[in-house]
Fold this sequence. Notes:
The protein is mainly alpha-helical. It has one domain: Up-down Bundle (Na+/H+ antiporter like fold). It has 17 helices and no strands. Helix 2 (about 30-40) runs parallel beside helix 13 (about 270-295), helix 5 crosses helix 8 (about 140-165) and helix 5 (about 85-105) runs antiparallel to helix 14. It is globular, with a radius of gyration of 21 Å. The mean pLDDT is about 85.
Amino acid sequence: MPLLSSLLILIVVARLFGQxxxxxxxxxxxxxxxAGMLLGPTALNLIHPNAALSGISELAVFLVVxxxxxxxxxxxxxxxxxxxxxxxxxxxxxxxxxxxxxVGIAFQLDVMRTVFLGLCVSIxxxxxxxxxxxxxxxxxxxxxxxxxxxxxxxxxxxxxxLGVILNLPAQPSLEAVAVSIIGTSWKLIALGGFILxxxxxxxKMIKKGIRIQKISxxxxxxxxxxxxxxxxxxFVLTFGSVSQALGFHFVIGAFFGALLIDRKFxxxxxxxxxxxxxxxxxxxxxxxxxFAYLGIEFDISTLKSFDFIAIVLAVSxxxxxxxxxxxxxxxxxxxxxxxxxxxxxxxxxxxxxxxxSIAYEHGFIGQSLFSTLILMGVVTTMITPFMFRKWVxxxxx
Length: 397
């Protein structure tokens, strides 16, 4: 099938499935991935993975990560690390990471696949968490505050871990991992110094009375309002280029570049315009293509070890809920609030799928584990709102 025809069919079906799932208060990404599975080799066999669709998918990864970073705030991360919520954030990442690694060791996976399994199990998708909290009208609750802070912390740590992993030698061992971590530490410090240095420079400009939004307004007056999106992309591309020059993946720098963009840098109306443009390009076109393409790459025939799949699902769900519950109880939240945090943290989705895609693209994991991770992302994201509605909401009312 010609590329244009494949792309049009993929967009239409992915958007349709996404809207259907959205109507039933489910994340649209689940419907988009199922659309890819339907159109791909798993079901109808109409569209196959190819270099052209892969290239469009890589562009989509950039904008998906940019959108995720733009939804977060650099100060929120610092605030989360400076409050008692750091206990939940640490447990919410460390316990699932350890559980995933133990599963990999138990099934005798190699070091790289074991690490990536643990990393994907440990992630919580911020957009999925925020969407579910909106559905249940809990955005102003303690559950929202601590679960969102944990999701931000998890995404940041996972991307930093990805940066270290991408610098590992071709034949990794435990000793090679240790050497690589030490060897890339200065690169992480350099990247962190660049990000923090830029943030401090902006802070000093604001303290001196320089209104950043006036700068963006002057650029708009000079280049037009449509140029604001281009300026944003160029800004984020700079951080991505620095990240790539240091040997990390491009999306790591792009994520942190987007993270530094604050609403106060723009007039409120301009920021809404920016969000609208980014949402139109990303959610309306590229993101559905990316998630549908993941569904196309999913190969059900590679899922031969159902014991492994069942254990991965059980561990990924159980470890997240337990970690959130223990973290909530440790800072003296109620049983219902603690359980609510654990259930919300179980929703994975966006970042887990991005990292799984990067790992598969670089050959760190095979088709079987990649399909298992996609299935885990779909299942955990789908069941989270049902668990929250059944187990948590009755105890909060």
